[in-house]
Amino acid sequence: MRQVDHLLVRRLRGQVAERLNRQRRADELAGRAPMTSEDERQFARSLIVQVLEDNARAEISEGRTPPSSEQEEALAAAVHAALFGVGRLQPLLEDPQVENIDINGCDRVFVGYGDGREELHEPVADSDEELVELIQVLAANVGLSSRPFDSANPQLDLRLPDGSRLSAVMGVCARPAVSVRRARLGKVSLADLVGNGTMSPTVGSFLRAAVRARKNIMIAGATNSGKTTLLRALANEIPPHERLVTVERALELGLDAFPDLHPNVVAMEERLPNSEGLGAVTMAELVRRSLRMNPSRVVVGEVLGDEIVTMLNAMSQGNDGSLSTIHANSSMEVFNRISTYALQAEENLPVEATHMLIAGSINFVVFLRKRNEYEAGGTLERVVESVREVTGIDHRVLSSEVFAPGPDGRAVAHAPISCVEDLARAGYAPEVVGRWTP
Fold it and tell me: Rounded to 5 degrees, what are φ and ψ at 126?
């Protein structure tokens, strides 16, 4: 990675920003329409060339050696990233091996790689104040609406332009803390996950048939276990003629980015209240709204609270084939986790009522396990460990673990599937094992 002078980048960024703002004001005074986002980026590139030329002339006049063409190229990329990207985080986001970036203050940057390594990286800002400023710029320009990040709003969730997920906090810890989860697999399929060992061909064939048979599926697992990636892969098995409505706290799934797979998608994002406490649109409200938008299926990116009751109602009232994710430590624990969320919801459902709702809405729970064997000479793996079928209710949710952990921890067939005839009509052939048929 080419090293750049970050103080120089900051100075050049200020010069470009000043000239860009000057052009904006001139356009406004002349009554011209404001530049589009893409036009601004292109104009900024020309301004970056100008300030780099000015910088080179200044260096020569002072008797110093101007930057080489290679150095100027690195400076131009860094200035553009500071203006429109994620500043010094940009090289990390462009590294295909990076999976996670954890920042505990500007100079405590820990990078996790795909093979399980974790390394201390160089600072991503010169001060914590500069780090907060970077996050504030992103919050103002990324997503469907501007999001505040300050002492009154110390929490932030964003989907970065490359699809990565950013979570930041300030004021509740000694230094601002940021976590970035890389979106390494965007256009992902079940075949890809079979190929990289996340699941066996049999489980892949089963999940494809479950989606095509319009079964409601809940994906469970711990943080960073691959839930969102699997959700994308399952969604990509949905026929292209179906209308999808996705509901998320921060746009992350990106199903609307692939019109060849999903030409008819509405992606909705929770909106936080403004500084006066007005204008909020909650996840639960968005799920309710989605049901009025003629969806073939509703996809809820991640269930974390009171939207659970609305979502389960949606699943049980004709929106078959819906998908969602939830945090849990096992496939069995999912039912207790849902019950806990339902108790906290506005409906305040008792456990018995929640169990009835689960039994009438969820068909399968797919559980993912993350295993980091790097210290033992292995690598980082994410595997489908268990699949549980909901079969009924008898004072509690009745279920059967149809795929259970095998000798290597990956799910293998374990018990009969009660709806196997539905899956067979969708192409599932349980007697065919050990191969994947696209």
Answer: -85, -15
- Nearest in space to 110 (alpha carbons), one of 126, 124, 97: 124
Please say whether the beta carbons of 66 and 56 come within 8 A. Answer: yes
352-to-42, 306, 347 alpha-carbon distances in Å: 59, 17, 13
Q: What is the pLDDT of residues 52-110, one digit of tens each?
A: 999 999 989 989 988 888 888 888 888 887 777 677 888 888 888 898 999 999 999 99
N-to-C CA span, the chain? 39
Q: Which residues contact 376 (CB under 8 A, 6 or more apart)?
A: none
> What distance lies between CA 420 and its chain's CA centroid?
32
Distance CA 301, CA 176 (A): 26
Q: What is the C-alpha to C-alpha distance for residues 182 and 198, in angstroms, rounded to an integer? A: 18
Answer whether 334's CB lies under 8 Å from 359's CB: no
For residue 388, the 8-state DSSP code is E
In angstroms, rounded to a whole number, what is the distance separating the alpha carbons of residues 86 and 77? 11
Spatial CA neighbour of 217 closest among 378, 208, 143 = 208
> How many whole angstroms separate alpha carbon 386 and alpha carbon 94?
33
- What's the pTM value of the predicted model, to 2 decimals? 0.73
Closest CA to 222 of 370, 65, 18: 370
Q: Is 319 exposed, middle or buried (0-12, 13-18, 19+ CB in 10 A)?
A: buried
DSSP helix/strand/coil, 343: helix
Q: Which of 291, 286, 343, 335 is nearest to 316 (CA)?
A: 291
What would the two tokens of residue 428 be?
């599932």
